[in-house]
Amino acid sequence: MLNSDFSPAAYLAQLNAKQARLEHLLCEFNAPKLQVFRSAEQNFRLRAEFRLWREDGQRHYAMMTPGDKRTPILIDNFPIASQLINTLMPRLKAAWDNNEALSDRLFQVEFLTTLSGEALITLCYHRPLDEAWHTAAEQLSQDLNASIVGRSRGKRTVIGRDYVVEKLEVAGRVFSYRQPEGAFTQPNGAMNVQMLNWAYDTLGEQNDDLLELYCGNGNFTLPLSTRVRKVLATEISKSSVNAALANLADNQIENIELVRLSAEELTQALNKVREFRRLANIDLDSYEFGTVFVDPPRAGMDQDTCELIRRFPRILYISCNPETLAENIRQLSDTHKITQTALFDQFPWTDHIESGVLLERKTN
Question: Which positions in this protein are listed as binding S-adenosyl-L-methionine (predicted)?
């Protein structure tokens, strides 16, 4: 059992500390009142990854003690994970305990679940996967009603599908998302819904175009596309681009052009510094961008990308690192001011802060 204080009082104390930290970082920019979105205290996480640890002749789910790779924390259940993950954990353990083909040199297990009730389980091995494993994995997939992915020395075997399908409601419309095994997805599904609705409401109805950098699998792209004339979205990860293209087709959205470029490359293209074959069929001059939406990695945006987005009247920024968010806002603060702020408790029981800000061009 993972020991921690999951009491409401402990949660609220940590959330208040996060709010104070974010407000302190944004106070120099005269930010408006922070809108705070709190998470469920348990069963909020849709993904989980465990090492396996042998003790008393059995394999157990485990996580390593922070800073100590030799001291495991053995886990029977995982309160922060979804109810579905907690249901699957003992059933999967019973399966490998009773089947050598499943347990032989199994060293890691990953769960990916959805709010809509789908599950995918990745089993990682220090050996090639043979026919006996394949037969056992097919039975396991049926028993658990979950797709199974086996990984071994750079090879991958898929039983079922290598993705789950999530369904999220934004402003009364349900969007369908393919979430591939091994690709990034928002871990806190219910909080993701709140983030999507906040971004949708904050953007508002616009009669111009949207540029999105770091679009991932189209998580924000799909609902935001219904608020503008058309969208140009960029992403560098191949698996995320493929998932995003499938999501555009599945949701029958036709006003989005998706390009596999980094934010830095798109900056070069828009500044006419360099031409890219991947943009050969896209007329950049036909866009009338009024808003840029960014959801960068923890490092934030580089200086050139900050200078690029400065040219847009509205900047909608989702951040997973308040320190780099503040650095980026500081660079933009001479031309833009913050008009809306939000804290999304995407990662309860950690110090991580997910936030959103709307910056609008100053009029004087």
Answer: 186, 214, 219, 235, 295
Walk me through the domains of the chain, giving residue ranges and CATH numbers. 8-41+188-361 (3.40.50.150), 47-164 (2.40.50.1070)
Task: Report pTM.
Answer: 0.93
- Model pLDDT for residues 56-80, shown as the tens digit of each residue: 888 999 998 777 777 888 998 899 9
Single out the catalytic residue among 320, 323, 327, 360: 320
Per the DSSP assignment, residues forming a β-bridge with 168 are 175
- For 70, the token pair is 């030799």
- Is 265 among the residues known to form the active site? no
Tell me if residue 320 is catalytic.
Answer: yes
360 annotated among ligand-binding-site residues: no
235 is in an annotated binding site: yes
DSSP 155-200: EEEEES-SEEEEEEEETTEEEEEEEETTS---SBHHHHHHHHHHHH
Three-state secondary structure call for residue 316: strand
Query: Annotated binding residue at 58?
Result: no
* Amino acid 182: pLDDT: 87
33 DSSP assignment: P
